[in-house]
Design goal:
Helices cover 2% and strands 55% of the residues. By secondary structure, it is an all-beta fold. It has an 8-stranded antiparallel sheet with strand order 4-5-6-7-14-11-10-9, with no helix packed on it. It has a 4-stranded antiparallel sheet with strand order 3-8-13-12. Strands 1-2 form a two-stranded antiparallel sheet. The two termini are 28 Å apart.
Length: 196
C-alpha cells in the first residue's frame, strides 16, 4: 500500500490471492507462456538518508527473465520512482505488464493515471513506450466499501510492452508516483535516456 496526504492510494487487492495480477507487480510472458512467480525475493540493498531512501530487490528466472526492482523514495517531493529492469535469459518474444492498482476517481492519459480522492491527488506516471490500459474492478472494490474517500472500485493500470529480446538484453519500465495534498498534481513528464 501507499498512503500519502491522509489517503490510501495503492490497493493490495487481497492478501490471500497469490496470483501476481492481484498485486502491484509485473507479469511476464515468454513466447505466450508464463510461470509462477518465484517464492522468494532477494534483497540486493536498502538504505536511507534525510533526503532519500531506496530498496533494490531481485527475482531470478521469473518466466524466463531476471527482474530487478529499485524503489527510490524522494522524501522532500513526497514521491517514489520505481525502476523495473527485466533481463532476458534467452532469445525470445516477451510481453511485460506492469500493474498498479489504485483507489480514487481515475483519469487515464498518455503518460499514466491520475487518481483523486476528495481533495488530494496522486499521479502514476509511466515513461513512454508501453501501451497503457485502465480497468475498473468493482468485485475487488468490495474490499474498499468502508473507505470514505473514494468509490469502492479498484482502478487497475496496466503498462504493456511486447518486445523481442536477445539473451541478456534488458527492458526497463520507469514509473513515478507523486501527488498533491490540495488539488490536481501536475505531470512531471518522465522520459528514458538514450541507452536505458
Amino acid at each position: 500500500r501507499l498512503t500519502l496526504f491522509d489517503r490510501i492510494w495503492l490497493a493490495e487487492n487481497d492478501y490471500y490471492k497469490a496470483p501476481v495480477k492481484f498485486h502491484n507487480s509485473i507479469t511476464v510472458f515468454r513466447d505466450g507462456q508464463s510461470a509462477a512467480i518465484p517464492p522468494y525475493t532477494e534483497l540486493v540493498g536498502a538504505g536511507e538518508s534525510r533526503r532519500y531512501g531506496y530498496s533494490k530487490t531481485r527475482l531470478t528466472n521469473y518466466a524466463g527473465v531476471d527482474w530487478v526492482r529499485t524503489v527510490i523514495w524522494l522524501k522532500q517531493q513526497q514521491a517514489f520512482a520505481v525502476l523495473d529492469q527485466l533481463t532476458a535469459l534467452s532469445d525470445d518474444e516477451y510481453q511485460f505488464r506492469t500493474l498498479w492498482h489504485g483507489v480514487g476517481a481515475a483519469k487515464l492519459s498518455d503518460n499514466g493515471l491520475l487518481l483523486t480522492q476528495n481533495g488530494p491527488s496522486l499521479r502514476i506516471e509511466i515513461a513512454p513506450g508501453p501501451v497503457l490500459e485502465l480497468h475498473d474492478d468493482t468485485e475487488l472494490g468490495a474490499n474498499w466499501s468502508g473507505y470514505s474517500h473514494a468509490e469502492p472500485v479498484v482502478r487497475s493500470l496496466e503498462a504493456v510492452a511486447t518486445v523481442k529480446l536477445d539473451k541478456r538484453d534488458t527492458y526497463l519500465f520507469a514509473s513515478v508516483l507523486h501527488g498533491r495534498a490540495d488539488g490536481v498534481a501536475e505531470p512531471w513528464g518522465i522520459d528514458l535516456l538514450d541507452g536505458a
